[in-house]
Amino acid sequence: MKPILVISLFVSVIFSSSLCAQKYVSSDDVLVETEWNGVTFSSEKSLFENLALAPGFAETGLLLEDYEQDIFKEGTMFTVFVSVDSSYRALPEETYKALFSEGNALEQFFKFYIIPGRLDSYSLKKAIANNSGKAYLRTLNGENLGIKEVNGQLVLVDSQNNTATVTASNFYHSNGFFHIVEGLVFPSK
């Protein structure tokens, strides 16, 4: 075969395969709505706007109100683990007061629940399987947050072995995914 014919064939195969592949690419934002306990979460809304629709997230709402604009910049994607209010109410009163009275500590606590990138439950389970049953996720505050699977449920684990169970997952917000957890985990700092 002549070299010019081989090059022409190669270029036409590459060009035609890229044209075929582009029919699956969309530049449109796709609206994704998911229902949870009678509330519809939407990929068009911020995390704060989504959680404001559902009862049981007042504590996280307070955190979001203070830090959302600084953390969730346009175009950045994050996975957030959102604790239900009953998790905060289960804390001893002095721990609760200390947590919500300290500015920098509160910000570091909130950032411990945020992972850069979009991680759905399937990718989390794959990471766990690829890491011998427990994966470590680098949080926005710079620490590692452990995650494992227990009886089919994802469980967050901190450095002191506190756990929080993921009870519902794969909800979109305008900057990524969020998962709902019961229980609290704490950064080591």
Helix content: 25-40%
Tell me the structural class.
Answer: alpha+beta
Q: How far apart lie the N and C ends?
A: 67 Å
The main β sheet shows up as:
7 strands, mixed
Total helical segments: 7
Any overview of this molecule?
With 189 residues, the protein is of the alpha+beta class. The chain is built from 7 helices and 9 strands, in the order H-E-E-H-H-E-H-H-H-E-H-E-E-E-E-E. The strands form 2 sheets. The protein has a 7-stranded mixed β-sheet with strand order 4-3-9-8-7-6-5. A two-stranded antiparallel sheet has the order 1-2. The N and C termini lie far apart (67 Å).
Question: Which properties best describe this structure?
Answer:
alpha+beta, 7 helices, about 190 residues, seven-stranded mixed beta sheet, two-stranded antiparallel sheet
Give the topology:
Blueprint: H1 3-22, E1 33-36, E2 39-42, H2 47-53, H3 58-71, E3 78-83, H4 85-89, H5 93-101, H6 103-111, E4 114-116, H7 121-130, E5 134-138, E6 144-150, E7 153-157, E8 163-173, E9 176-182
Parallel strand pairs: 3-9
Antiparallel strand pairs: 1-2, 3-4, 5-6, 6-7, 7-8, 8-9
Helix pairs in contact: 2-3
Summarize this entry quickly:
The chain has 189 residues and is α+β, with helices and mostly antiparallel strands. It is built from 7 helices and 9 strands; from the N terminus they run αββααβαααβαβββββ.
